[in-house]
């Protein structure tokens, strides 16, 4: 990232800046939010914040990095000026910061803040006045009539001589610490010196600034005036070229910095070990996962340097990916409203010494990762997947840390914060694991704290030897040629070790990513215009190669902006010359891994591969710091006016601007050191030929590519006017709408699968994991939309909180016409009228969710509600209804909120409406353990009224997840409602009766079953008799059903299933009814189609397969097709007697045949002896299912065709008598041998084979 900003700068530093108190404008209170203003005035004046100003900066401006006064002022002293007296501690503090420009390029700042005595009389007396006012206020507060005399004395002591102090109560001692008396106290104010640089060399900059400060604090003046050193760093010290080291002089000693070559990991000079020290490996890895999945991340600490160090380290470890969203490691106090941003962000918030996290009001937490750096603790969003191979990865990082003498748990702060952290967290520590609400492997800290620590201690013991040998006591490991401090080398080495281990994870995980990159078919120009619609990576194929445990993480990671941008940059570069540094390094490593991997690169295993290339990286660094490549000019006397720049201990001098404002006229090293020019050429070459277009267009494209999908990288760091805030929010609203459009489109394309692909949209198939990922990201988007512009935050989920408000208002009036009714199943086919549709009710759906005991958190409830609404195809309608209460929306949201921008809101609801085009089972499939009420209706045939029916009917409902067992149905009602654990999608209904009473014959039209929560209604057609002596004498039947689609069209289109179908032997009627019986060609086609359906079923990924039962026993399934085979040319002995295929099968095997047909007879006997009364067609169905399961069908067909009795029972034209037709039938049936067919329990119940 820094490469872009340095493209034209070849100086080590661009600016030297001084910030502090402007004595001319006096004390101005800092601009803060209203809440803070109140807090600020309650503080004693020494603890308040005042405005700081940029007092001077040199040079005035450089063209390649224009000076941004507001941003630098805010970030050098983010909390404004601080005052102290002689009793307070006044240690200098170093911190770094980053300024991100509009185009995403960055500039770094390094600031040292120290305290200087206030010499201005006006300022001192102003402070004294503020104290008088403050004390008077406190006096009013404390001085109530009942109060004892104490407090009055307390405030009088200000004007009394000092000895009172000893006797005063403790509260007065506190006052004394925070008080200021002009006559006896010295007042100090903060001042800051800062370097603004194109690249981040924090270690070098820290040394330069500390030595400058030391020169001021020292009684003796420095060897040269300060101007000489500052001039030197601004104009005479170049940036070290790639792969080289550079030495230059500070005031008191040399400073060394070095830069990696183009084949090493990019430059990173912050100490990563500091982050591990502050958080511990386990927490760092959780934070890393959140960052990779582009959650909102808020870092919280009272040290600016810690915020910066953690933010920079975590983003550096993402190599080769780059954080694409808002990145503000230090958020100035005046920009707090930015936490409202409804986009992924990584921000750092100064805790202001406020230790109580619960008082911190954050606009949205549904998707937030909150990192309390000072208390060593991290709060995670729900449903965070595990990073692949997490335990082995932790083990490997821990070993690296231990080898550098660091503790893998980090330095845990004092025990009291630990207990506070525990009590605070335990409230939310809920795991809704079995349901969709997977609470992440949350806080290993609480769950596996002991075992983690035990494991790491064992590790320390094992590798203990290693840790002391390398960097032991001071001076133990000292290379005489070493040019930098030992500590610095240790930092470089620990950095490269850790970074290599992290980079190795990605090179292993994405070793074969190039295979899956989809190169655009059209020219680059049209590719850019349609970039949003294009898929650039074959996600489904990539995921299907991955080990199962990786999927939850990877499927979400592939959806991120950082992954898309990485692939875009891969598509944009033509050859190695073009590649940007990160990509080139990554590709080189991937190639190396693939050469080492003799196993086929596409077959990924979950074997953990450790990092092997640390040593070469370490050698490169050690070479650079033992042999310095370049030494800069030494500081020298400048042409200064005599008598200026005089040394005054403790005061930073007023520098002579004329000597510092311009550099040397001819820059010797610009000519002399070719590397700087090579580097510039490199950059130009990298940019050039990006698209083989002229420069302007090319720059425009590169810019657009960078900005794809990101609306705002960083807020404008200026004092914000309402109009600027409004504009920012407008950008957010537009961004949210665009994101919503892309998400809905992607989800539809995924769902509609092949048809959509043929219409030219993206990918082919979607896995369950992927569908879950997309729905989870839709939930996140809804949470972000609902938390944009909230007036007051309540609970962690803004969406659920809005729903609860709605529920409160309307729950009573629910009955008064707020309810609409779905136009569902309005049919006259006997099925529809029997089951009136469920009422559409937003409130009822909320109550369903509230009744699910397994979901404990608000975020979990909101997600479950979204899933349920998606499954019921009511999401858009429900949200429209929720937002139709404008008064409520006004009460909850600020004017600029997305939900109050009418046009955008309408478009957003319209996009959501498109989900109604496809069927989702995202509720049923995720909440698999919850109890669900089902309603069952048996519909008797209208033609023969079932009023005389005397037996007692029963049903047993089976689904993909479970089955109910036998349920008795009241004879007079013929319907029941029961509650049982989620059955999943329904597949079969077994129904029958107990054959009691005078008239135990029953003609059943169909059975309807409805899930009372999701409203899904299934129809199981029957159209057959149940009873002895009618039809095939069956007392029970297995019915295969299908989901009825809510439709408002005319009668003709029932569901995908015509009325007479989908149950055993159904098609027998079809054959006898239709005068033109099927010919052999049609029968062969029928068998082919049935087998084809089964083959296709097994070729789909497991999570996407439909119901196999439907393919075997449903309409035109395998059972029906074979029935046609056996019925073709069958001689019917008498005109009206029903002859069933089963009769033929029973007659077929005669004695002298027994040996060849032993297995066949075994199956026949087993089916005949079953206690179930399933009738002849039911038995035939069972035989076909068992034959398919055991791969025997082709063998049996061959047997039966040869069987002597076939000759007697079939006409000569029958299919079974045509050798060639039988052979082709056998070949078709043999294709089933490749598949492992598992039958649903209901199909083979009672048969012990």
Automatic annotation (TrEMBL):
Which of UniProt's keywords are assigned here?
Answer: Guanine-nucleotide releasing factor, Membrane, Repeat
Which ranges carry the PLAT domain? 932-1040
Q: Where in the cell?
A: Membrane
Give one Pfam family, short name only: PLAT
Chain positions covered by the region annotation Disordered = 663-687
Q: Which GO terms describe its molecular function?
A: guanyl-nucleotide exchange factor activity; small GTPase binding
Any one Gene Ontology BP term: retrograde transport, endosome to Golgi
* GO CC terms: cytosol; membrane; trans-Golgi network
Task: Give the UDENN domain ranges.
Answer: 34-580
Gene3D superfamilies attached here? 1.20.58.900, 3.30.450.200, 3.40.50.11500, PLAT/LH2 domain
**Positions of the RUN domain:** 769-928, 1109-1242
Tell me the protein family, please. Belongs to the RAB6IP1 family.
Q: What is this protein called?
A: DENN/MADD domain containing 5A
Organism of derivation: Gouania willdenowi
Question: Gene symbol?
Answer: dennd5a
């Amino acid at each position: 990232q820094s490469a872009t900003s340095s493209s034209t700068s070849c100086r080590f530093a661009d600016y030297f800046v001084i910030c502090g108190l402007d004595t001319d404008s006096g004390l101005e209170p800092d601009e803060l939010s209203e809440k803070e203003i109140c807090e600020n005035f309650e503080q004693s004046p020494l603890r308040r914040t005042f405005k700081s100003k940029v007092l001077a900066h040199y040079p005035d401006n450089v063209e390649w990095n224009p000076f941004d006064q507001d941003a630098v002022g805010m970030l050098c002293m983010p909390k404004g000026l601080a005052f102290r007296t002689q009793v307070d501690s006044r240690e200098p503090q170093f911190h770094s910061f980053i300024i991100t420009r509009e185009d995403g390029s960055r500039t770094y700042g390094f600031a040292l803040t120290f305290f200087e005595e206030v010499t201005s009389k006006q300022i001192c007396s102003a402070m004294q006045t503020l104290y008088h006012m403050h004390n008077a206020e406190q006096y009013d507060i404390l001085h109530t009539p009942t109060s004892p005399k104490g407090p009055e004395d307390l405030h009088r002591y200000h004007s009394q001589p000092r000895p009172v102090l000893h006797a005063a109560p403790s509260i007065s001692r506190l006052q004394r610490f925070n008080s200021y008396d002009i006559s006896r106290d010295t007042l100090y104010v903060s001042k800051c010196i800062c370097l603004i640089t194109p690249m981040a060399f924090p270690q070098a900059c820290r040394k330069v600034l500390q030595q400058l400060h030391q020169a001021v604090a020292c009684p003796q003046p420095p060897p040269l005036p300060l101007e000489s050193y500052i001039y030197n760093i601004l104009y005479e010290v170049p940036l070290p070229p790639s792969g080289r080291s550079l030495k230059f002089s500070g005031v008191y000693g040399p400073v060394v910095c070095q830069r990696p070559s183009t084949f090493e990991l990019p430059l990173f000079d912050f100490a990563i070990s500091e982050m591990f020290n502050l958080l511990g490996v386990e927490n760092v890895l959780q934070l890393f996962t959140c960052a990779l999945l582009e959650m909102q991340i808020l870092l919280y600490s009272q040290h600016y340097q810690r915020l910066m160090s953690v933010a920079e380290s975590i983003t550096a470890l993402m190599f080769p990916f780059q954080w694409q969203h808002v990145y503000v490691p230090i958020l100035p106090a005046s920009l707090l409203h930015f936490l409202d941003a409804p986009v992924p962000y990584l921000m750092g918030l100064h805790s202001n010494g406020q230790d109580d996290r619960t008082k911190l009001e954050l606009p949205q937490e549904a998707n937030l990762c909150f990192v309390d750096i000072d208390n060593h603790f991290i709060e995670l969003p729900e449903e965070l997947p595990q990073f692949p191979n997490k335990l082995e990865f932790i083990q490997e990082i821990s070993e690296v840390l231990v080898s550098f003498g660091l503790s893998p748990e980090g330095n845990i702060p004092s025990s009291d914060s630990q207990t506070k952290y525990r009590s605070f967290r335990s409230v939310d520590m809920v795991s809704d694991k079995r349901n969709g609400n997977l609470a992440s492997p949350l806080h290993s800290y609480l769950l596996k704290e002991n075992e983690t620590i035990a494991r790491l201690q064992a590790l320390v013991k094992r590798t203990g030897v290693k840790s002391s040998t390398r960097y032991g006591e001071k001076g133990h490991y000292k290379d005489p040629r070493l040019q930098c401090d030992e500590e610095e080398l240790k930092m470089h080495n620990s950095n490269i070790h850790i970074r290599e281990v992290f980079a190795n994870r990605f090179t292993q995980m994405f070793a074969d990513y190039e295979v899956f990159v989809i190169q655009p078919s059209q020219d680059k120009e049209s590719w850019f215009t349609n970039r949003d619609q294009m898929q650039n990576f074959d996600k489904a194929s990539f995921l299907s190669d991955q080990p199962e445990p990786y999927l939850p993480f990877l499927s979400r990671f592939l959806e991120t902006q950082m992954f898309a941008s990485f692939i875009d940059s891969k598509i944009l570069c033509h050859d190695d010359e073009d590649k940007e540094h990160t990509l080139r390094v990554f590709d080189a490593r991937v190639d190396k891994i693939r050469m080492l991997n003799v196993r086929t690169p596409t077959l990924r295993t979950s074997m953990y591969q450790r990092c092997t290339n640390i040593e070469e990286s370490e050698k490169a660094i050690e070479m650079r710091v033992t042999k310095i490549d370049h030494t800069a000019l030494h500081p020298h006397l400048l042409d200064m006016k005599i008598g200026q720049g005089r040394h005054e201990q403790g005061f930073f001098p007023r520098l002579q601007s004329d000597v510092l404002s311009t550099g040397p006229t001819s820059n010797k090293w610009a000519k002399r050191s070719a590397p700087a020019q090579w580097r510039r050429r490199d950059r130009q070459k990298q940019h050039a030929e990006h698209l083989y277009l002229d420069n302007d267009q090319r720059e425009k494209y590169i810019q657009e590519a960078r900005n794809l999908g990101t609306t705002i990288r960083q807020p404008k760091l200026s004092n914000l006017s309402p109009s600027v805030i409004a504009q920012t929010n407008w950008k957010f609203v537009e961004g949210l709408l665009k994101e919503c459009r892309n998400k809905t489109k992607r989800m539809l394309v995924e769902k509609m699968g092949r048809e959509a692909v043929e219409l030219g949209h993206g990918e082919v198939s979607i896995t369950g994991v992927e569908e879950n990922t997309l729905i989870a990201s839709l939930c996140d988007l809804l949470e972000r939309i609902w938390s944009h512009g909230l007036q007051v935050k309540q609970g962690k989920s803004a969406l659920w909180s809005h729903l609860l408000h709605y529920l409160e208002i309307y729950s009573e009036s629910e009955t008064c016409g707020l309810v609409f009714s779905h136009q569902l199943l309005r049919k006259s086919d006997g099925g529809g009228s029997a089951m009136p549709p469920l009422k559409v009710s937003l409130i009822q759906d909320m109550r369903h969710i509230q009744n699910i005991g397994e979901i404990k958190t608000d975020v979990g409830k909101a997600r479950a509600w979204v899933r349920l609404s998606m499954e019921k195809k009511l999401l858009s309608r429900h949200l429209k209804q929720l937002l139709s209460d404008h008064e409520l929306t006004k009460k909850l949201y600020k004017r600029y909120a997305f939900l109050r921008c009418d046009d955008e809101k309408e478009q957003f609801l319209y996009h959501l409406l498109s989900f109604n085009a496809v069927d989702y089972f995202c509720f049923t499939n995720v909440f698999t353990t919850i109890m669900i009420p089902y309603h069952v209706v048996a519909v008797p045939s209208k033609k023969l009224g079932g009023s005389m029916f005397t037996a007692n009917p029963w049903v047993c409902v089976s689904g993909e997840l479970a089955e109910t067992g036998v349920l008795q149905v009241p004879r007079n009602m013929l319907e029941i409602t029961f509650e049982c654990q989620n059955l999943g999608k329904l597949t079969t209904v077994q129904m029958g009766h107990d054959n009691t009473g005078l008239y135990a014959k029953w003609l059943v039209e169909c059975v309807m079953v409805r899930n009372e929560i999701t409203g899904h209604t299934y129809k199981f057609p029957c159209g057959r008799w149940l009873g002895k002596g009618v039809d095939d004498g069956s007392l029970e039947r297995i019915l295969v059903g299908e989901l009825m689609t809510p439709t408002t069209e005319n009668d003709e289109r029932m569901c995908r299933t015509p009325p007479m179908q989908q149950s055993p032997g159904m098609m027998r009627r079809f054959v006898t009814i239709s005068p033109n019986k099927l010919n052999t060609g049609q029968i062969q086609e029928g068998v082919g189609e049935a087998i084809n359906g089964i083959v296709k079923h097994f070729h789909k990924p497991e999570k996407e397969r439909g119901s196999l039962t439907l393919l075997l026993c449903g309409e035109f399934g395998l059972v029906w097709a074979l029935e046609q085979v056996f019925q073709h040319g069958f001689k019917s002995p008498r005109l009206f007697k029903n002859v069933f295929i089963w009769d033929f099968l029973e007659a077929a095997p005669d004695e002298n045949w027994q040996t060849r047909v032993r297995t066949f007879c075994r199956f026949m006997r087993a089916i005949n002896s079953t206690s179930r009364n399933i009738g002849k067609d039911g038995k035939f169905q069972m035989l076909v299912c068992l034959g398919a399961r055991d791969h025997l069908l082709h063998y049996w067909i061959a047997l039966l065709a040869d069987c002597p009795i076939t000759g007697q029972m079939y006409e000569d034209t029958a299919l079974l008598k045509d050798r060639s037709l039988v052979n082709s039938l056998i070949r078709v049936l043999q294709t089933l041998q490749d598949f492992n067919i598992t039958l649903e329990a209901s199909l083979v119940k009672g048969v012990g084979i």
